[in-house]
Design goal:
It is built from 18 helices and 8 strands. It has 3 domains: 65 residues, no CATH class; 96 residues, 3-Layer(aba) Sandwich (Rossmann fold); 106 residues, 3-Layer(aba) Sandwich (Rossmann fold). It is α/β, with parallel strands linked by helices. Helix content is 47%, strand content 9%. The protein is globular, with a radius of gyration of 19 Å.
């Protein structure tokens, strides 16, 4: 990290630094300056790991990775919200309390439903399976799948992540094809497991989906950080192309679509007030732009963006499923 030139580009784009003045000192201090003195700070848990700082860094420094490493040094968590997530994972193998759902257990395309989906908060498994089937897949869910480990990796729970990976790996490795709903799961499975996984939008890119002539709706298309930066910006192009094929849909250009929702990286669990404030700002911008609906290709973002209750916020595959013939 000695290549930092103190240009301030990371501070200019960091939403936490802008919105939490006095509480969050920014990625440069946390990722570059603190490690030089072998020091740590609880501020590291205010970072949403959105990756924007790394994207603009002229020295290409792994700033987000450095902040996550600091969290590992501070494990176990002292924050009540994080401890609840960790306790839940130890008890259920999931970061969200799982609920019952109906799904085939055999097929050719394995859907990794993720914790938010299995908790039926957003990206509900039945609706995602229906969408995949409409795209020509033979989707199924193996009931033995558990949390991918991404939420726990963000709090530095290295041993717990490895435990969950050891449960999932044999199931994923045997699958003919793996599709995910959550961008965090997509990135985790690809990079940490070394198994190729497609985000559902990548799977749907060339699919011939038949939609009803639904009501006119103006959509604010949120760009999830862990999708556009973790999986790749091409996925948001796919998202827009698919939505524009749905009768009655107008995708708005508001200018703030790429801004973080504020809930990622464990912030929603650790600092719900701060996550709410960022989501409220974004929801208000969508409202002022004339949007009727916020669509997020990420279950976790959908959950956080609906909290202010300014506009309805839905996960994208659920919206598409609602418009299928």
């Amino acid at each position: 990290m000695n290549d930092c030139i103190k240009c301030g580009e990371c501070l200019a784009v960091c939403h936490a630094y802008k919105h939490l003045q006095g509480e969050f000192s920014g990625p440069r201090r946390l990722a570059v300056e603190y490690p030089r003195f072998n020091d740590t700070s609880s501020e590291a848990f205010m970072c949403t790991t959105c990756g924007y700082c790394e994207e603009v860094c002229p020295a290409h420094l792994p700033l987000t990775q450095a902040i996550v490493r600091m969290r590992t040094q501070m494990f176990p968590p002292q924050n009540e919200g994080q401890q609840k997530v960790l306790d839940l994972a130890l008890r259920t193998n999931h970061a969200v309390e799982p609920k019952e759902y109906n799904a085939p257990t055999t097929g050719r395309t394995l859907l990794f439903p993720g914790c938010v989906g299995k908790g039926r908060l957003a990206g509900k498994p039945e609706e995602v399976l229906k969408l995949l089937a409409a795209a020509g897949a033979e989707p199924y869910i193996n009931p033995g799948l558990v949390c991918c480990g991404s939420p726990l990796s963000k709090m530095g729970a290295v041993e717990e992540v490895e435990r969950l990976k050891n449960i999932n790996y044999p199931i994923l490795a045997e699958a003919e094809q793996v599709v995910t709903i959550c961008p965090g799961c997509t990135t985790m499975i690809n990079k940490s497991y070394g198994i190729n996984a497609l985000h559902i939008l990548e799977f749907l890119e060339d699919a011939e989906l038949n939609f009803i002539d639904g009501d006119n709706v103006r959509i604010y298309l949120h760009h999830p950080c862990h999708l556009s930066r973790g999986v790749g910006p091409h996925v948001m192009d796919i998202a827009r192309n698919i939505l524009e094929k749905v009768p009655g849909v107008t995708v708005l250009d508001c200018g703030s679509e790429e801004d973080c929702c504020g809930g990622g990286g464990g912030v929603l669990a650790a600092y719900p007030r701060e996550a709410y404030a960022t989501a409220d700002l974004k929801a208000r911008e969508a409202q002022e732009a004339g949007a009727d609906l916020i669509v997020a290709p990420c279950p976790f973002c959908a959950v956080n963006l609906r909290r202010p209750k300014r506009l309805k916020a839905v996960e994208m595959s659920e919206f598409l499923c609602s418009r299928l013939k």
